[in-house]
Write a structure and sequence with these properties.
single chain, 941 residues, 10 strands, Glucan synthase-like 1
């Protein structure tokens, strides 16, 4: 197609026609499509993004300069040889895991090593000759700093190539490609010792070869080298890099290796210098780089700080001290577990041009960027988390930006207007505790000061997420606690007063409102089951049933059970369905949703709802949010019962047991429960919540239903329960230390927090008050005397427990016969009392179990209320008794939790089904997940 005259109005149309022509005349066959799933995904997204609406990119020399900032503390930089080879308790090493998960990429890597002569016959040779390449290959598939640096340095490589393309004519590009191929062929032939090139062409003189090499160098190593350095800087804020160098930490050498191989990389750290006799210290913010001419690390800047750096939260403090070393008009904040791709780096010029466009009445000050979660490819749990995150970072944030206009800063891929933010308080707030979720406060600050936040879908950054249930729960605990602190912050208060009504509603639901509503849903479940329990025990339910047959009132049943659809996680999954419909098509989205339900996604999302509600509510009541390190390793190993109990006892297990006991009592005394269908319809959602909260940590735990592991896990749990505490003992070793840490928030809470805690704990006493009047020994007596006599029974039980506990502590070690004697006397007295009651009263044997259901919650309520007065009681002798009671209850809770687990592990076929559910994605891809779980590696001789 020839254009004799083409004006500016035809430029856009001409470019589209050229693109269409290129697509139509392409002759590539389908056999050239990559087999690797990740490669196909990247090509697909890049191809689709080219048709999206994006600004036209300027030449590199005219583009905005920008920097990338990554906070780093002490995470993995490059996996060491020992880390790659060391095996966990199941006999699985990191390298073995990667070889099975990325089997095609490992095969390609070995082929490259053979082509380079590093591996000749056996793959084991790579440990001797290609160790560095092996370490990097593994590190690029984990959540390491080296992976992040490699991804961000694609910006530099892309700018170098784009600078060359900007200044080169089409004939220069073609000549450079031809000269480059001639040079490579010549070098390949010379490496094999031949005078001619390897494909039989005429011999090339040394003068021709030198001309080829110089021309290629001139084409590809010209002024683009300096231009790329002027336009891009990458600063990694390695806060403790100075102390790591002083301690000869291997991480310091690995960071230096990254600087050697990435010229645009700069490292900022805090240097502590002793002053005078060593009693005082001076603190400096230091920026260093690697000088290739001097072949050593050199300082660029050294700025003295007024005092220690870490006064607030560590991560924002780390960012704040390093942001002064960034350059240019924009700064992109990238987390330590993120990645980028070369094809996405090509579009950064387009993204920066967004600053010159008006969105509404203002130009943007914060550019939101799409994320791709790259850790959701193996386990079902990782897939659930990936799907949830993907729907939020794509569809969710797109809607928040336009039309709702309430998008904030939720994570690290966003691009800041550097000068705008530096002059308005920076990109991070670092106040202790209140800014535990430091990211979103940058968005609050931007909105309050008149900034404009946008979101753009045509460019993406890779993101690693937590892949194990314990990691996911700790992450959600941190985020939920952070939202609790946000609710108490003045930023939310100011935004609530300044936003218009509709933006205020949108802002509420998309920030703290989501967690507040989740807490309300859980509280509604509590109100529902406690209300039903009150109706049954008080007799009101029977009287109502006599007046109007509620068993046929379908409308009432429907209204009372509306929370079921919420608890199933259907509403949580709705954004995923919509996002997958846009990305994959409606039928594929529905099929993915069905597969998620078959893989027990509803259990996971219900469990996640409990995590959010617990930690958000605790932070609202007591404050004290804290950073929880989640870890970024590969999670395929089995987690012990004791570890799961430590993490979920207070947030899920106790609450699940409480609701389960309420439902059992309701089934025993409710008139409606005689109609099985109505009882099931009323309580099935609550039972589903109980099962999810108690069994989810084991359902989503590799080998969670293995009989031997369950047996040894419970044995370890009992050893942990009885292990005494001490100064140097950690919570992972002793129950006493864990219990002290778990109740520490009650020590620092305020007056209203203590009052509300006591009021909430009073609910446990209702069990006793309601059930004792239904005992056979009560003979339908409704006087207060029955309730008072029940307290006497509790007092007697407490005295007997204290006597036995005191005898155990005093005589069990040296005079064991005395301890056994006390136990025997106690048992005899209890049996005698039961016999007397059976003989002379209307007491029946079943009343023993009914009394236990009534009295055990009362004991837990007493313990919970006394813990509110922990600072006072800790100085008295009563503290040891209280601790003994609390230990007894934790043993009891452990037995209740392990009982259904033991039944499921005993049933045939359950372990195999659980493995299939948990690793269905791996089975679908033909991965040898069973070998990873069992650690049975085959060795070839």
């Amino acid at each position: 197609m020839q254009w004799s005259c083409r004006g500016e109005e035809h430029d856009v149309f001409y470019r589209q026609v050229k693109r269409l022509q290129t697509i139509l005349v392409s002759t590539d066959s389908m056999s050239n499509v990559p087999k690797n799933i990740e490669a196909r995904r990247r090509i697909t997204f890049f191809s689709n993004s080219l048709f999206m609406n994006m600004p036209r990119a300027p030449q590199v020399e005219k583009m905005m300069a920008f920097s990338v900032l990554t906070p780093y503390y002490s995470e993995e930089v490059v996996y060491s040889k020992e880390q790659l080879r060391s095996e966990n308790e199941d006999g699985v090493s990191i390298l073995f895991y990667l070889q099975k998960i990325y089997a095609d990429e490992w095969k390609n890597f070995v082929e490259r090593m053979k082509r380079q002569g590093i591996v000749k016959e056996k793959e084991d040779e790579i440990w001797d000759k290609g160790l560095q390449e092996l370490r990097l290959w593994a590190s690029y598939r984990g959540q390491t700093l080296s992976r992040t640096v490699r991804g961000m340095m694609y910006y530099y490589k892309a700018l170098e190539m784009l600078t060359f393309l900007d200044s080169a004519a089409e004939v220069d590009i073609r000549d450079g490609r031809e000269l480059g191929s001639v040079s490579s062929r010549r070098q390949e032939g010379s490496s094999h010792g031949h005078g001619r090139d390897s494909i039989g062409q005429s011999p090339t003189s040394s003068r021709t070869v030198s001309r080829v090499n110089s021309d290629v160098s001139a084409l590809f190593k010209g002024h683009e080298y300096g231009t790329a350095l002027m336009k891009f800087t990458y600063v990694v804020a390695c806060q403790i890099y100075g102390s790591q160098k002083a301690k000869k930490d291997p991480r310091a050498d690995e960071i230096l290796y990254l600087m050697k191989n990435n010229e645009a990389l700069r490292v900022a750290y805090v240097d502590e210098v002793e002053k005078g006799n060593g009693n005082e210290k001076e603190y400096y913010s230091v920026l260093v780089k690697y000088d290739r001419k001097l072949e050593k690390e050199v300082e660029i800047y050294r700025i003295r700080l007024p005092g220690p750096l870490k006064l607030g939260e560590g991560k924002p403090e780390n960012q704040n001290h390093a942001i002064i070393f960034t350059r240019g008009d924009a700064v992109q904040t990238i987390d330590m577990n993120q990645d980028s791709y070369f094809e996405e780096a090509l579009k950064l010029r387009n993204l920066l041009e967004e600053y010159n466009r008006h969105y509404g009445i203002r130009k943007p000050t914060l550019l939101g960027v799409r994320e791709h979660v790259f850790t959701g490819s193996v386990s079902s749990l990782a897939w659930f988390m990936s799907a949830q995150e993907t729907s939020f970072v794509t569809l969710g944030q797109r809607v928040l930006a336009n039309p709702l206009k309430v998008r904030m800063h939720y994570g690290h891929p966003d691009v800041f207007d550097r000068l705008w933010f530096i002059t308005r308080g920076g990109i991070s707030k670092a106040s202790k505790t209140i800014n535990i979720s430091e990211d979103i406060f940058a968005g609050f600050n931007c909105t309050l000061r008149g900034g404009n936040v946008t979101h753009h879908e045509y460019i993406q950054v890779g993101k690693g997420r937590d892949v194990g249930l314990n990691q996911v729960s700790m992450f959600e605990a941190k985020v939920s606690s952070g939202n609790g602190e946000q609710t108490l912050s003045r930023d939310i208060y100011r935004l609530g007063h300044r936003l218009d009504f509709f933006r205020m509603l949108s802002f509420f639901y998309t920030t703290v409102g989501f967690y507040f509503n989740t807490m309300v849903v859980v509280l509604c479940v509590y109100a529902f089951v406690w209300g039903r329990l009150y109706l049954s025990l008080s007799g009101l339910e029977s009287s109502i049933r006599n007046e109007a047959d509620s068993t046929t009132n379908a409308a009432l049943v429907t209204v009372l059970n509306q929370q079921f659809i919420i608890q199933l996680g259907l509403f949580t999954a709705l954004p995923m369905i919509i996002e997958n419909s846009l990305e994959l098509g409606f039928l594929n989205a529905i099929w993915d949703f069905i597969k998620m339900q078959l893989q027990l996604a509803s259990m996971f999302y219900t469990f996640s709802m409990g995590t959010k509600a617990h930690y958000y509510g605790r932070t609202i009541l007591h404050g004290g949010a804290k950073y929880r390190a989640t870890g970024r390793g590969f999670v395929v190993q089995h987690k012990s019962f004791a570890e799961n109990y430590r993490l979920y006892a207070r947030s899920h297990f106790i609450k699940g047991i409480e609701i389960g006991v309420i439902l059992c009592v309701y089934a025993s005394y409710s008139a409606i429960s005689k109609n099985s269908f109505v009882y099931i319809a009323l309580t099935i959602s609550s039972w589903f919540l109980v099962v999810s909260w108690i069994l989810s940590p084991f359902v989503f735990n590799p080998s969670g239903f293995d009989w031997l592991k369950t047996y040894y896990d419970f044995e370890e749990f009992m050893n942990w329960i009885w292990c005494p505490g001490g100064i140097s003992v950690k919570s992972e070793q002793s129950w006493e230390v864990w219990w002290e840490e778990e109740t520490d928030h009650l020590r620092t809470t305020g007056l209203w927090g203590k009052v509300l805690e006591i009021i909430l704990d009073l609910r446990y006493f209702f069990f006793q008050f309601g059930i004792v009047y239904h005992l056979h020994i009560a003979s339908n007596d409704t006087s207060i005397l029955v309730y008072l006599l029940s307290w006497i029974c509790i007092l007697v039980a407490v005295v007997l427990f204290v006597v036995v506990s005191h005898a155990r502590n005093k005589y069990s070690a040296k005079k064991h016969i005395y301890y056994r004697m006390v136990q025997a006397i106690t048992i005899v007295l209890v049996i005698a009392a039961v016999v007397v009651l059976l003989k002379f009263t209307k007491f029946e044997f079943v009343d023993i179990f009914t009394s236990m259901v009534a009295f055990f919650p009362t004991g837990w309520g007493i313990i919970s209320i006394l813990l509110v007065f922990k600072p006072i009681l800790k100085r008295t002798a009563m503290w040891d008794t209280l601790r003994s009671f609390a230990r007894f209850y934790d043993v009891l809770f452990g037995l209740v939790v392990v009982a259904p687990l033991a039944v499921l592990t005993w049933l045939p076929g359950i372990p195999e089904m659980q493995t299939r559910i948990l690793f269905n994605e791996a089975f679908s891809r033909g991965l040898q997940i069973s070998r990873i779980l069992t650690g049975k590696k085959t060795h070839t001789n």
